[in-house]
Amino acid sequence: MGKNKVPKERVAEPRRNKAYYPQYRSAIHRIFETFATMKLNKKHLDLLQRTPFWNLFKSFIDKSYDYSKTKKNDDT
């Protein structure tokens, strides 16, 4: 009655004449902007110190983070 259909295997077609540009995604700058606008009290800071990311958060809070030096660059 019913035959079992075997699905056809799809093969990706090569994209000719298209350059591949790797994409790097990061929300670090957004986090920095968020920390710049937040008003943290001592309890907040105590809780943040318990996280493994405290050194990163501290650089945001102290505004010692330089976004221009942390951009991804393929030339290096």
From TrEMBL:
It comes from the Eukaryota. This is Uncharacterized protein.
